[in-house]
Give the backbone structure.
Amino acid sequence: MRLVAGMLLMLAGALVQVTWASQLEIAGAFPNVVLIVVIALTWTQGVRAGLLWGCAGGILLDLNAPGPLGLHAVALLCGAYVTGFWARNLDRESPLHPAAAVAVSTVLYSLVLIGADRVLGLPIPPFATAMQLTVTATLYNAALMPIALITVRRATSGLHWEPAAP
Amino acid sequence: MHGSARSRRSTGRFLTLAASMLALAVISQQSWAAGARGTAKGLLAPLEAQMMSIASGVERTTAIFGDIATLRAENQRLSAENQDLRRRLAELDAAAYDNKELRQALDFQRTFGHRTAVAEVVGRGPDAFSRTLEIDRGSDDGVRPGMIVVSGAGLVGRVREAGPHGAIVQTLADPQSRANVFLSGSGLQGTIIGGPSVLQLQVEHRLGSVASKGEWAITSGVGGGYPRGLVVGDVVSVTHSDAAITDAAFVDWVNDPATLSLVIVVLDFSPS
């Protein structure tokens, strides 16, 4: 049941990301719904859940992106891993920490995507453009994180998912 | 002790999953895996098409609510009757918009002189680094990587990957896109460079000619990447410098990837 609900959540997030998210563009960047959901799940459910759903969400994003499968999954895994440690060692109730965690995860996500493209010999955007897009996306995702966290907390408590141990 | 063991377990899981995903990336990039990758990438296309149609429905509904609010403000007495009329009008507008796009596609096909296939946009790239579109036509419809994609308004981009029932199109807005163009007024040649908000244009210097605002950028055919004569956009600003070998300009692209719903794949143009 938990697996099905999680898969449906990630599928919904990925579909929203590849169909609607680009309509919310500001200064060339748009929110990454899947990244926000994965970080919110890591924050509330722990690093194990975050890694699992990061992997699933990343593969779903890869199905819509040019290039090989697995790169978005690696990028999301890095965000979930760092957030897992952050959540374990800091106050879970503060709204600033998850926003900062998603900001750091967005930077990591961007670095991993660009780095992986470079290693695999795929084209990468110019530095100035990549920088501008990363900074804007970081602010955008951080601003949306508190809403996402409340939504994920309500959804997981409704599904009787146990929160992660502090 | 417990915390340290838990950290080690988390790190172990992370490294295992990351290594698995990197292995998947390497394997899926092999030429022999291209078919399977293309098939996998087409799996979500039907769901994406449904989501896109829901988005259109939401937009139409929003338009209707906007109309109703205006009518109420204007005339309370006729609101009920107007509400119905406005709803019908909005539905007709939506149908007319679809028909207009289809007519543009058909006109384009007749006048362009190339063999083409009309495709529906079913998805968009998940991140801002690669501005791509997913279309519902693939190798089974004759679509191949490298083919150019246009709309009734002008150049959209190029097919980057094709699966049996879908393909991924790299649009001009992608930071890696390049297209050689000439300007309609001055005749100056230049190179369009993709960008997230507006397209950048590097224009050659020629004695007695300066690029100016309002000129149309049209593909020149130089380099063989795109056929000559496709509209890219209009110049919105030019920065001229006598010291530089090129002028910098910005071009407003004729297509908006966020609203494109139908595109045309040119099936018989081979980029050199």
